[in-house]
Amino acid sequence: MSEFAELGPLLRGWRERVTPQDVGLSPGPGRRVVGLRRQEVARLAGVSPDYLTQLEQGRGSVPSAQVLMALARALRLSAFERDHLLRLAGYGPRVEHRAAPTPEMQRLVTQLGVVPAAVYDEYWNPIAWNPQWAQVNGDPASRPHIERNMLWRLMTGLPIRAQRPPSDTREVQKVIVGDLRAALGQHGRNDQHDLFIADLSLHSTAFRELWTLQHVDNYKHDTKAIRHPDVGILHVDCDILDTGSDGHRLIMYTAADRSATSDRLQQLHEQPPAATQRERTA
Questions:
Q1: Looking at residue 184, what is its pLDDT?
Q2: Going edge to edge, which strands form the sheet with 221-228?
Q3: DSSP string covering 148-187, please?
């Protein structure tokens, strides 16, 4: 399926989440439609209902950027969602896939020292990390390749050190799945993307359900309570930074100054690496 075919499910999903009241319309008596009717969106965007039907069904020609911008306004899309919509239709540059981080990014990660840091690709595979990251999370190199993937571990119930209530776990899952969907617009569809989606859908009911929501998101910040087997709970801020045109993300953990977590991170930085077996089960 082409990226353009993704437009239909997205437009339908976005239409269903907007209420008439959101756009200044009266719902009227006996309304059964979830969200807006096609005719209402078409009128707000200045397009014909037939053309909107074709778009939602994955038919018709690729819409112009002006039509997509009008639909984005009618559907109350965020700037991030609007840009994703434009990229799916072929407007805007693709992000080049790079298998390994640049030497400069590798050096940055290594020199961060006490700050746990790693570089992940667009599918949430770790491709570089410093010793402190391995100390805090367990060494990714000690795990089978697929089990190194952040999303795979989160969606399939593999042991992770981050401790969250179930409701928070579901919200983080939704955000990261949405981020993965956004990568489709940034990089374009390819065999690696399709294989990963199919495999994870097979192994995780939760992922399969979230993927059907057509949610698009951007995973940029998180807070974590990490249970470390040696030093106890680490309360960290997790920041995810876009590294540029290659689709990689730099992830860093930081702690409040002069906090217990700050002291514990320093302790981990000064001690030898954890045992391989402990890392494998972390």
A1: 77
A2: 126-129, 117-120, 249-254, 232-242, 221-228
A3: G-HHHHHHHT---SB---HHHHHHHHHHHHHHHHHHHHHH
Nearest to 223 by CA among 179, 266, 189, 254: 254
pLDDT at residue 275 in the model: 45
pTM of the complete model:
0.79
Angle, helix 7-17 to helix 79-88, in steps of 10 degrees: 150
- In this prediction, residue 1 carries a pLDDT of 47
Query: What gap in Å lies between CA 153 and CA 140, rounded to an integer?
Result: 11
Q: Within 10 Å of residue 177's Cβ, how many Cβ atoms? A: 25
User: Residues near 165 by Cβ (< 8 Å), separated by ≥ 6?
Assistant: none
Q: What is the rounded CA–CA span in Å between residue 254 and residue 270?
A: 17
- Cα–Cα dist 15/23, whole Å: 11
Number of H helices, E strands in the chain: 13, 5
Find out whether 154 and 172 touch, Cβ atoms under 8 Å. Answer: yes
Residues with pLDDT less than 50, the chain: 1, 275-282
pLDDT reported for residue 3: 60
DSSP 8-class letter at 156: H
Query: What pLDDT does 97 receive?
Result: 64
Cβ contacts of residue 192 below 8 Å, gap of 6+? Answer: 123
Cβ(238)–Cβ(267) below 8 Å = no
According to the model, what pLDDT value does residue 243 have? Answer: 82
